[in-house]
Write a structure and sequence with these properties.
Elements (H helix, E strand, L loop, with lengths): L1 H23 L8 E5 L5 H9 L4 E4 L2 H10 L7 E4 L8 H7 L2 E5 L2 H10 L7 E7 L15 H9 L4 E8 L7 H21 L5 E4 L5 H6 L4 E4 L1 H4 L4
Parallel strand pairs: 1-2, 1-8, 2-3, 3-4, 4-5, 5-6, 6-7
The structure holds pyridoxal-5'-phosphate (PLP).
Pyridoxal-5'-phosphate binds next to β8 and α9.
Cofactor: pyridoxal 5'-phosphate
Pfam families: Ala_racemase_N
GO molecular function, one term: pyridoxal phosphate binding
C-alpha cells in the first residue's frame, strides 16, 4: 500500500518544517498546532492521517464535510474545523457537526451558530476571519472591525472566542507580506489582552507556513503538503 506510506512521509516533512521554523523563531514546537485540511479528499485519506496521529481536520464545504463526518463517526476524538465561507442557511449543520468554526465574518452568522449549537455539546470554538489584504476573493472583516465583532461574539453563550484566522495574499510583495503578518500578530496580541480565552492565531498554509510561524502563528492549516494537490 503506497498511499499510507506517502502520507506518513509527507507528515514527517511538514512536522520537520514546523520544527525548523519554530527553532529559527526560538519558539517551542508544541506552540504550533497542525490542522490537516482534508477538503475534496476522501474519508479514507482522513483515516490514514488519523492513523498517523492527526486529530484536527479542516473542511471548507458544508455538505461534503457533513457526509465525511458521518462516515467517520466512529473516530470520536477527531476535532472538525470549519474553515470555509459560511452562508446562513448552512449554519445549523455546522453548529451540529463541528468543534471549531474559523471563518466567522459577521454577527448574524455568529448569532445563528450560538442559537443552533446543541446544548449537550461544548460551546463552539470560534475564530474571526480577517481579510488582511482586502481581497475581494476572500471572506473576512477589516482589522478595524475586529474589536466590535469580538465584543459581540464574547456575549454569545454557545460560542467561545479563541482568536483570529487569516489568509494573507499569496501574491504580495515581500514587504507587503511582512506588513500583513505583523498587523495580524499585533491584532492578535491586543485581543489576547482583552479576552481570557483568546489563544489562537490561525495563520499559515502549505506555502507560507514558515513565515506565519515566524510571526507568531499558533495554528497552521495544511492541505496540499499533506494530501497532495487538489483537483
Ligand atoms: C484550502 C485551505 C487551506 C489549505 O491550503 P493548502 O495550500 O492546500 O495547504 C488552508 N486554509 C484554508 C482556509 C483553506 O481554504
Amino acid at each position: 500500500m503506497a498511499q499510507p506510506l506517502a502520507l506518513k512521509t509527507q507528515l514527517a516533512s511538514v512536522e520537520q518544517q514546523i520544527e525548523q521554523a519554530c527553532k529559527a523563531a526560538q519558539r517551542d514546537p508544541d506552540s504550533v498546532h497542525l490542522i490537516a485540511v482534508s477538503k475534496t479528499k476522501p474519508a479514507s485519506m482522513v483515516v490514514e492521517a488519523y492513523q498517523a496521529g492527526l486529530r484536527d481536520f479542516g473542511e471548507n464545504y458544508v455538505q461534503e464535510a457533513v457526509d465525511k463526518i458521518a462516515e467517520l463517526a466512529q473516530y470520536k476524538d477527531i476535532n472538525w474545523h470549519f474553515i470555509g465561507p459560511l452562508q446562513s442557511n448552512k449554519t445549523r449543520l455546522v453548529a451540529e457537526n463541528f468543534a471549531w468554526v474559523q471563518s466567522i465574518d459577521r454577527l448574524k452568522i455568529a448569532r445563528r451558530l450560538s442559537e443552533q449549537r446543541p446544548t449537550h455539546l461544548p460551546p463552539l470554538q470560534v475564530l474571526i476571519q480577517v481579510n488582511i489584504d482586502d481581497e475581494s476573493s476572500k471572506s473576512g472583516i477589516a482589522l478595524e472591525q475586529l474589536q466590535e465583532l469580538a465584543a459581540e461574539i464574547d456575549q454569545l453563550p454557545q460560542l467561545t472566542l479563541r482568536g483570529i484566522m487569516s489568509i494573507p495574499s499569496a501574491n504580495a510583495s515581500e514587504q507587503q507580506q511582512q506588513q500583513s503578518f505583523n498587523a495580524l500578530a499585533e491584532a492578535f496580541h491586543a485581543l489576547q489582552q482583552e479576552y481570557d480565552n483568546v489563544d489562537t492565531l490561525s495563520l499559515g498554509m502549505s506555502n507560507d507556513m514558515a513565515t506565519a510561524i515566524q510571526h507568531g502563528s499558533t495554528m497552521v492549516r495544511v492541505g496540499t503538503s499533506l494530501f497532495g494537490k487538489r483537483q
